[in-house]
Amino acid sequence: MLSDFASETMTQTLPIGTTTRVRVPGSSANLGAGFDCLGLALGIHDDIEVTVVDEGVHVDVFGEAADAVPRDERHLVVIAIRRGLDASGVHAPGLAVRCESRIPHSRGLGSSAAAVVGGLAAASGLIANAGLADQMTDDELIQLASEFEGHPDNAAASVLGGGVVTWVETIGDTAVYRAHRLAVHPAIRATALIPMFESSTNMTRGLLPDTVPRADAVFNVSRAALCVHSLTSDPTSLVAATADRLHQDYRAPVLPQSAAVVEAMRSSGLAASISGAGPTVLVLGVEPLPERAVGVATDQGFAVRELPIAGGVEIA
Ligand SMILES: Nc1ncnc2c1ncn2[C@@H]1O[C@H](COP(=O)(O)OP(=O)(O)O)[C@@H](O)[C@H]1O
Ligand SMILES: N[C@@H](CCOP(=O)(O)O)C(=O)O
To answer: C-alpha 197: how far from its chain's center?
Structure first.
């Protein structure tokens, strides 16, 4: 797929002044039992504008983590733009990149996947707007973005929007990332309980064991399958569907506040789970979060934000 895409555009240079705008949603991965294979796009967006200039890389960042990210070739969006252009055999003399970041970083809301999808989508938009080739397909965006992330759940949600189920096929030595969009039941509401503190996804992935007891594997397989049914057809089983034994308990020692909030929500009958690798907690349901639960979260220092289910990345 990408090799065909690249061969059409090999060694071409983007004209100075070519521009593109991208709007990309954040996401919540896992949804409890679906470790690395379920995700939900959320209505909290980063906006990225890129213009081809005659030389250099100029990065402006506004909003979340504006003071923390590098303003040069090391910026994740710039790295992804470069990767997208390289995959298509296209060169940019220089780039001016403007990021309006609204997805909090290192909170389990898919900011890194959104940055990568946004950068790749911007490369695709530049190439298409210059008339060099069609935009990349969703499959191409998911493949390239998941190669950055090492797991496809957040990236697929940011590309496709809605709910996603993802899987990986190994073809020769290559991991091929696959995804289907799920039509989320219209009654389902998602509330993110977002703390001020951060947690690195890479760090907490390192806490997970290589092998798990078969009973835990069976527990999660059944709950992840149920979660697809609950998300699409029957929200009444969301509490059972969002139970997990594959990752949350192993991460709990470094995320004790988040683990306590999940426990408090679940013991009052709410479908709460760690969002992605945490520390945000995601609550799924069909009603607004009850006042009592809002109080528990805010007492623990978690901001409560109900977020719409979002559509996928938009490229103009
Ligand atoms: N919009 C962005 N621009 C630049 N870097 C980003 C952006 N979003 C995320 N990152 C990088 O990704 C890191 C967070 O990734 P990660 O630990 O996977 O958490 P999450 O994706 O859950 O927010 C940040 O510390 C930052 O280095
Ligand atoms: N399946 C991944 C999801 C990580 O999501 P993030 O938003 O925390 O980056 C995992 O559980 O590690």
So the answer is: 19
Query: Are 163 and 198 in the same domain?
Result: no
- Return the ligand number nearest the Cα of 156: 2
Q: What is the residue whose two structure tokens read 């977020």?
A: 307
Partners of 90 in the beta sheet?
A: 12
Tokens of residue 31, six digits:
């949804």
27 Cβ inside 6 Å of ligand 1: no
The protein residue whose alpha carbon is closest to atom 3 in ligand 2 is 276
DSSP per-residue codes, 136-173: PPHHHHHHHHHHHHSSSHHHHHHHHBSEEEEEEEEETT
pLDDT at 10 over 80: no
> What CATH number is associated with residue 42?
3.30.230.10
Contact 106, 145 (CB under 8 A): no
| ipTM greater than cut 0.85 | yes
* Residues of the domain holding 70: 12-180
- Indicate which atom in ligand 1 lies nearest the CA of residue 99: 1
Task: Determine the atom of ligand 1 nearest the C-alpha atom of 105.
Answer: 23
User: Which of 151, 203, 220, 249 is the pocket-test mutation for ligand 2 (most atoms within 8 Å of CB)?
Assistant: 151
Q: pTM for this structure?
A: 0.96
